[in-house]
Model the fold of this input.
Amino acid sequence: MPNQHEMTVALSDEEYEALSAAVACGEYASTGDALHDAVSEWRLSRALQTPGVVERLRQLVQEGVESGSAGSVDFDALRMEARVRLKAARSIAANGG
Done:
């Protein structure tokens, strides 16, 4: 695990309540986990703002549309694959990649 650093963060009442609620309902084990996830999402969002990334995604979508029907789709398997890919992308973003 990479080095960890502590930081003090000031949150609005609304942000604090939302964070506390996410931990209380079991979505996260701790506020630290929730903040780590938030930073990972922020990093991924910034990566998508890199010049050319959105245009490349649009190009890939267009290629998919032009390739025709994929036939029947197993949406449970598709969701599972999407979750695996999202987890991998978050891991990459969290590790600075």
